[in-house]
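One chain is below:
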Amino acid sequence: MVKHEDLLNPEMNEVVKEVREMRMKISEKCGHDLNRLIAYYQKVGKEMRKSGKYKFVDPEHPDEKSTSKKTTHGEAAD
């Protein structure tokens, strides 16, 4: 989570600006079509997984979630 003070940092603002510019370019490349955007990001994700350079965490299937979760370090369960 980004803290409010981080957003006031000029370096952080530049990073956010760069990310937004890249997202806009990708959206333009896909004709601002949601289905094409989803397909693009899925393709890129598959390529990144295949590369072995990045680690991914797969979402837990709803049936596999336990009904009771233990809390750790004072954190509340879902």
User: Anything to note?
Assistant: The helical segments are 4-7, 10-29, 34-51. The chain has a mean pLDDT of 83. Residues 69 and 78 are 8 Å apart (CA to CA). The radius of gyration is 18 Å.
